């Protein structure tokens, strides 16, 4: 395994699992794009993630209530998620489409590592995380199945940020459906980068 893939594997291990736990067990989707994520390093190794700017999170109150927790956001707050889809869109856009896609694209562009292998690595970490959540009973099995399918198998709604701004949309996403690189079918659509020396 290339040194870059080892780095990517460690990076993904400190960025992904707890965000999937928050989504499935608590109904919280962080806005963990690169600007909001602070990766803690011990020397060259990523060891933790801190996410800031909690104003962009989404909370599905019904999931939070199952844990005996509640929030009372400001009226008409963007924090309230209308449904599971709102959680999926927030987490997918911030974590996978923005944060990890940029890292994967850079690794693939700058090194001899195939982008498809990077996405396979991310997918494997997600699968292990969902398996662990199921084993510990962190959330109902049917919910874990829905969350996993929505994030890892189905085509995804790609947030079209420029189109949103041009249309004056702040509270409504403008999206287009794209293939999901976390699914096998989505990875097949990726064209490998040029070979590196």
TrEMBL record:
Classification via Pfam families: FhuF (PF06276)
UniProt feature coiled coil, ranges: none
Database matches in Gene3D superfamilies: 1.10.510.40
Example GO molecular function: catalytic activity
Start and end residues of each Aerobactin siderophore biosynthesis IucA/IucC-like C-terminal domain: 7-172
InterPro entries: IucA/IucC-like_C (IPR022770), LucA/IucC-like (IPR037455)
GO terms classed as biological process: siderophore biosynthetic process
Signal peptide: none
Protein name, as recorded: IucA/IucC family protein
Phylogenetic placement of the source organism: Archaea, Methanobacteriati, Methanobacteriota, Stenosarchaea group, Halobacteria
């Amino acid at each position: 395994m290339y040194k870059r893939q080892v780095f990517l594997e460690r990076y993904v291990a400190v960025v992904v699992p707890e965000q999937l736990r928050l989504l499935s067990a608590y109904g919280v989707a962080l806005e963990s794009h690169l600007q909001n994520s602070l990766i803690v390093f011990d020397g060259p190794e990523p060891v933790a993630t801190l996410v800031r700017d909690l104003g962009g999170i989404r909370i599905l109150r019904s999931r939070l209530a199952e844990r005996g927790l509640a929030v009372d956001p400001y009226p008409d707050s963007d924090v309230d998620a209308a449904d599971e889809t709102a959680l999926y869109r927030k987490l997918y856009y911030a974590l996978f489409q923005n944060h990890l896609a940029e890292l994967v694209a850079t690794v693939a562009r700058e090194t001899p590592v195939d982008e498809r292998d990077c996405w396979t690595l991310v997918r494997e970490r997600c699968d292990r995380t969902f398996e662990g959540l199921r084993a510990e009973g962190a959330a109902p099995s049917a919910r874990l199945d829905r969350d996993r399918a929505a994030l890892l198998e189905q085509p995804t709604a790609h947030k079209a940020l420029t189109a949103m701004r041009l249309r004056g949309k702040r509270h409504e996403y403008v999206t287009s459906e794209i293939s999901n690189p976390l699914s096998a079918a989505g990875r097949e659509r990726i064209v490998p980068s040029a070979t590196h020396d």
